[in-house]
Specification:
single chain; alpha/beta; 310 residues
């Protein structure tokens, strides 16, 4: 399986926690305006058609979401996340390009937000300015720079998206990148999930983000982290491993499934089906680990992880 990239993680976590995302970044506007009885629509296809030259870049994560308001109107939310250290001099121009292409084609109200999760403290553009003679155009957009926020500021009570933002903050601190330091802060974040009224799926998605955003050098630490997570959250051993196994496949299957127009429930069913298929092959004992891995397009390590659930 391919390694899940940070832009993959951001795109997925925003989709999985979009109501919490809205409350996190736009609390007053969300409370007063958003109609949560209407489903959000993620317009990835429309975004790709509007700006194919941007969405192909792997160092950024872009989402376009249709939000319905209480007065029965639509607001399109453009979310851009800068995930790597790279000072793009044309960043503001790119934000403006998105804006005018959306406006030109769809004539919808647009809220734009740029989230900077990189280490460059001098990079946080919030305006595109065009000026020539007496012709002036200024386009300003919302920005949020993780580096400038304290952990206290990032930790919004009772909002699970705080875990996401705290993970991004920890990853910016060099001293937190060694395996031993990683283990400590990842477990601290896991403890924040304890006794919260989150669903199993919410916990699974947050754990996936915590585990994958920064990787251990030694894979043994990942196994040890899994054991600690299960014990801390009081998960039955097999169920806990099953939950964590599922997250390893989510991003592998999501992109292809979305291209085929499959809905979230179908994607989840495909993931669970793949794991069950591996289990059945292991129980029959007629194939080697390598053969099973090849059949289901996973790594041998993943097959070994599934074996632990039996």
């Amino acid at each position: 399986m391919k390694n899940v990239t940070k832009d993959d993680l951001w795109k997925a976590i925003i989709e999985d926690f979009f109501p919490d995302f809205l409350h996190y970044f736009f609390p007053k506007w969300t409370r007063l305006n958003v109609d949560f009885t209407q489903k959000f629509e993620f317009l990835d296809t429309e975004l790709a058609e509007l700006a194919p030259e941007f969405v192909q870049q792997k160092r950024v994560a872009d989402k376009l979401v249709k939000v319905f308001t209480k007065n029965k109107s639509e607001v399109w939310m453009l979310i851009h996340i800068e995930v790597q250290d790279y000072s793009d001099k044309k960043f503001a121009e790119r934000m403006f390009t998105y804006f005018y292409r959306i406006w030109d084609k769809y004539k919808k109200k647009i809220i734009a937000l740029a989230i900077f999760t990189e280490k460059n403290q001098h990079f946080s553009p919030d305006e595109f300015l065009y000026e020539y003679e007496e012709t002036i155009l200024s386009y300003k957009f919302n920005i949020f720079k993780v580096l400038e926020k304290s952990e206290l500021e990032l930790n919004i009570p009772n909002n699970p998206f705080s875990i996401v933002m705290l993970t991004a903050k920890k990853a910016l601190e060099k001293q937190n990148l060694s395996d031993d330091k990683q283990f400590i802060w990842k477990m601290d974040l896991v403890k924040n999930l304890k006794d919260k009224n989150y669903t199993n799926e919410q916990i699974r998605n947050l754990l996936h983000f915590i585990r994958s955003y920064v990787r251990f050098e030694d894979n043994k630490n990942d196994t040890e982290l899994t054991k600690n997570i299960i014990n801390t959250l009081n998960l039955p051993k097999n169920m806990g491993i099953q939950e964590l196994l599922t997250t390893k496949l989510i991003e592998e299957i999501r992109e292809e499934s979305e291209r085929k127009g499959e809905i979230k429930g179908e994607i989840k069913g495909k993931i669970e089906g793949k794991i069950e298929g591996i289990k059945k092959n292991l129980q029959k004992g007629k194939r080697t680990m390598e053969e099973i891995a090849d059949i289901f397009d996973v790594t041998v390590d993943f097959v070994l992880d599934v074996q632990k659930t039996l």
